[in-house]
Amino acid sequence: MTAAVRDRAWHRCAASLLLFLSLPGSAAATHAADEGESAYFEQLPVVLTASRLPQALQDAPGAITVIDRPLIERSGYRDLARLLRLVPGMHVGQERASASWVSYHGLGQSIPGELQVLIDGAPTYVPVSFGTAAWTGLPVFLSEIERIEVVRGASANSYGASALQGAVNLITRPAAEDPGEHVKLVLGDPAIRDVEVGWAGGTAPLALRLTAGEQSDDGFRGLHDHRRTQRISLRGDAQLDPENSFSFRLGTTRETTGRGYPDSPFGNNALRDGTDRAHLVHLRWQRVEDMDREWSVSAYHHQLDYRDSWLAGAPGIPDVPLSRDRRDLRTSIEFQRRDRWSETVRGVWGAETTLTQTRSPFSFSSADSVRVPIYRLFSNIEWQASDPTRVNLGLALERSNHEGWRFSPRLYANHRLTPADTLRIGAGRAWRTTSPFEYRSDTRVYHPANPSLLLARPFIPNPDLRQTRADTLELGYIRQLRWARSTVEVRLFHERLRDMVIRQQVTPPPPTPLLAASIPTTQEQNFGEDLNVRGIELQWEAHPWKGADLRLAWSALERHAGDEQIEAAIAPYTASLMWMQRWSHRWSSLVHLTRVGPVATGDSYLAGEPYVVRAYTSLDVGVSRPLSLAGHPARLTLTALNLGPRHQEAANPAQQTGRASPANRVSRQVYLGLDMRF
Per residue in 612-650, is it b (16+ CB within 10 Å) or e — as a string? Predict the structure, then answer.
């Protein structure tokens, strides 16, 4: 079966399913008259991330995907990014086992910043200088996460300009939940060795949860791709009195990974080991007056230290030092107030002040830190216009020191046609704050024996860079199908992005670098045309027979920018199908199939033509069984990732120059996990 035939099959399958689910007069719908099935009505979850108000999923202003704790545990996955393949429209590819490229609708492939990542509502994004986010190095364990809420679409009025296209909120478990100890061991190939220990308990009014562990593996076969991640996390919750509570979260991660390729051009991405460290402190005071009225004050500090230096070279010029070393800091204080002003109107409002700092002497040709203060006002008002209709109005003002004030409005209306059917329509505007690297980067490479001789200047600054603006219009429909014991959501959307930031080759200012002809100079610039993305997303969760859980996430996009390179950076479709099944004798299984269309993804130190990764299919399987060991509950899980032919998911374009085959193909990983509780 050719790739084109497989792609058409994916589209036909999803379209047929969508048509089938939308026919209320079908025989299956008629069968809903059966008393047993009509009694089924799945309670949709309450979510917080879309508006900062607790809302039923069908009343929230935007499309949301929820990945809960049972799914996280049953998946057997070791890393967070792989779970996000279950989100419609989310493109998740691996450049290597320790480097995942995660973006919504394909944006953010060069310098991330369109998708905000939060831990308990605290942003983990800080200004980056190069490359993708370290998803494996976040200071949180998967075992701590109660659920993941992913807002698909502009979320800037809730979480700032880094949430241009959405937000991923990792909501952790309360410290008092499941007191006791646990031990988790994972062994497998290639050289997978994980250990995690945790304890939860305490004495009233303080509850604590402490978790520590290490993950290590040799990554993908044929690559310099080993990883060792050490992590410690502490959460504390204190209920001081019936109204006041205090919580804190401390996390630290140290990750060493193998990087580079043995034959990278000019050694621009030579073999080396890099070490990243992350430290997170989050403090929160909350006062709950009643069910609808509360206020909170939060303070958080996130620090990232990257050590990534190596020696490059050109003919006759060996041992040229290159570096991506940097320190990123983000410190924020936030006040939030939730209130109800009448029986039909409630809302939330607040203010936040943030200071971000980035220091990277090699990237900025300066030892000084780039400091960016950010000020933000935000609000969301929910009006219950009638019993079945809710209107949400979100407003935000945000200002950074070099870009002035920006206004981000959002208006959504949700109408319950029936108790099982909800129609949602909305529009919003969001802005993306440009990162220090984009407008201040000034990377200069000098001759190691003659510091006055400029060899290359791969990046130059652009102080006139403008913020990217996104205008979104969407129509959504949520339906609970009793006869199929399922919930389906369809989202139609149109996104228009103005002043997108792209990397362009430019003529370097004098003096002309010696290797300018081979190592071109680039600059981050605003794309002169609008990028329009239109499409459809489908999210389906079902329990069609006893013990079965099915999840389908599918999206199809049209991209119009008047530029083939920009359009190629967005996959025309993504699809994910997960089937979990409980069998007799307490066994359960998992099959997860992912399909991604052709996409020009990835980045490199050297500028060059984009490289399009072919459409690929990824298959994961797993089996698990709960058991008792020495009288203690435990779960045994066997997981296999990337089954089937090896394929490429994300590329380094410079590394592909002149190559007929992919330089970095994913490979199979198989491991056995034991999770035991005391």
Answer: bbebbebbbbbbbeeeeeeeeebbebbbbbbeeeebbbb
d(CA 675, CA 69): 14
- Return the number of other C-beta atoms located less than 10 Å from residue 350's C-beta: 20
> What CATH number does the domain located at 3-677 have?
2.40.170.20
Burial class (CB in 10 A: 0-12, 13-18, 19+), 222: exposed
Distance from chain centroid for Cα 280: 18
Q: Which of 563, 669, 581 is nearest to 624 (CA)?
A: 581
512-518 contacts: CB < 8 A, separation 24 or more? 513/445, 513/454, 513/455, 513/456, 513/457, 514/447, 514/453, 514/454, 514/455, 514/456, 515/266, 515/314, 515/455, 515/456, 516/456, 516/457, 518/266, 518/314
> Domain locations in the chain?
3-677
What's the N-to-C CA distance of the chain in angstroms? 50
Nearest to 192 by CA among 673, 671, 677, 582: 671
pLDDT at 71 over 90: yes
Average pLDDT, the chain: 89
Both tokens of 70, joined, read: 């049972």
- Structure tokens that stand for 131 in this block: 């490359």
Mean pLDDT of 369-391: 95
Is the CB of residue 278 less than 8 Å from the CB of residue 139? yes
| Residue 203 confidence (pLDDT) above 60 | yes
Share of the chain above pLDDT 90, in %: 73
Strands (E), 20-160: 46-47, 55-56, 63-68, 90-96, 99-104, 116-119, 122-123, 145-152
The C-alpha atoms of residue 516 and residue 407 are separated, in whole angstroms, by 41
DSSP string, 337-357: EEEE-SSSEEEEEEEEEEEEE
Distance CA 218, CA 165 (A): 33
> How do 116-119 and 166-172 pair as beta strands?
parallel
Looking only at the bridges linking them, the beta strands covering 521-526 and 192-201 are unpaired
Q: What is the mean pLDDT of residues 399-418?
A: 90
- Residues counted in the chain: 678
**DSSP state for residue 243 in the 8-state scheme:** S
Answer yes or no: are the C-beta atoms of 469 and 485 closer than 8 Å. Answer: no
- pLDDT(37) > 80: no
Structure-token pair, residue 259? 């990087």
Per-residue pLDDT at 125: 67
| 23 alpha-carbon distance from chain centroid | 34
The H-or-E segment that residue 15 falls in is helix 3-21
178 DSSP assignment: S
Other C-beta atoms lying within 10 Å of the C-beta of residue 483: 18
Average pLDDT over residues 296-302: 96
Q: At 650, give phi and psi (nearest 5°).
A: -145, 145
β-strand partners of 575: 554, 595
In angstroms, the CA 603 to CA 282 distance is 32
Residues 515 and 322: their CA atoms lie apart, in Å, by 15
Q: Say how far apart CA 57 and CA 62 lie, in whole Å.
A: 9
From 671, 661, 616, select the one nearest 639 (Cα to Cα). Answer: 671
Secondary structure string (H, E, C) spanning 274-335: EEEEEEEEEEEEEEEEECCEEEEEEEEEEEEEEECEEEEEECCEEEEEEECCEEEEEEEEEE
Contacts (Cβ under 8 Å, ≥6 apart) of 337: 294, 295, 348, 349, 350
Helix%, strand%, coil% for the chain, nearest 5: 10, 55, 35
What Rg value do the Cα atoms of the chain yield, rounded?
25
Give burial (CB, 10 Å; 0-12/13-18/19+) of 341: exposed
